[in-house]
Amino acid sequence: MRYFIIALLALSGLGSRARAQDELPKLTIPSSPAFSILGFEPASVMRPTSNKDLAADVLNSFDKNGNLLMNLGLEVTPYWWKSRPLPREEYLNPDVSQAFLQSFSLSAATVKDSASGDNKLGGGLRFKLINGKPVPELRAQEEKLLKQSNIIGAIGATIGLVKSGRVTSRKEAMNLIDTTLSRGGTDRNIINELWAQASQIIADYQDDAPDIQQFLEKLNELREASLGELKQNVAVLNKQRRGFILEFAGAASFITSRGNTTDRVGVWANASNYVSETDLFTFTARYMFQNGDTAQSNFDAGLSYQKTTDKFNVSIEAMVRWYRAESRYLGSLDENLKRIDRDVTYRIAAQGSYMVSPDLSINLSIGKNFDNPYFSANSFFSILGFNFSIFNKERVRL
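^ thats the sequence. predicted structure below, dont judge the formating
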């Protein structure tokens, strides 16, 4: 878990706070529907990248007696199981069918319910039909990365000439790299940066083939390291989209220890529109059914607005819920009776977060939660919290 809560101050009653946290507003589709429908994250998640890997992972999901192991998760995106020589433009701007193929994913998970002792199995899928457009900054950052990467290619080509004996000194190698980059249109300032890096290490090597090669390899390492932040930016921008996005998901869970009895079913639909780089509108519709002592179904529809800046995020959302709850009980004459509750309730909430530093943010949520059909309580809530990161960001490799 990347973030943990250092401090949490509830400004309303304990009961209201607990229910608010149980149903935090999620006007988005879950990234892993199978995990969401079970309400937990597996201890071990398998992500096979080929049919062979999938077969091996599935076999490893059973013990020697053929029983399904608990607390395991599986996520696959079949389209990427083999190399796809897609044109860059087609990948970034897919049509409806291509957007579906690229995004269609399946997830599955198993869990043992600690309260009832039941073994549960969840399965889900997710896909997009419209995936917006790339952010404008991506093109500029990619071009910048390409120009920087040309240096690595020029160094690699020069290493080959050193091995063949056609380059016999460190200075000759650097002059050749300079000429190659200049002819290729590389900005002079970038070439000068390369010379500055080379001057820091050139005295550590001699003018013989092994040393010249080691010098160029070290220079290549320094150049790769200096591209880390740029690669990070491109990787992040590559996942960001603008414009209209339409996606769907579905999931179901079953109690396998009771003959695969249906436990929960969920269906989600999301329509998002980035009207600008910092402003997002989202419409969500979802249907949830839960089978138990009380069979309850909810249909929710809601709209949210989110404003994102470098320092703060603000979101406002409203959701209407139509619910039906069916429960059975014994009457005064021991007869089986059925009670059905139907009603409409709503949730409205505002959330804000302010980044104090790259590792610390302050978060506030206020609003009114859905009313519960079985008990009456204060449904208004307010939660103040602090999030602190204790881990460094992961390196991104392209």
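Residues 1-25, 392-398 have pLDDT under 50 and may be disordered.
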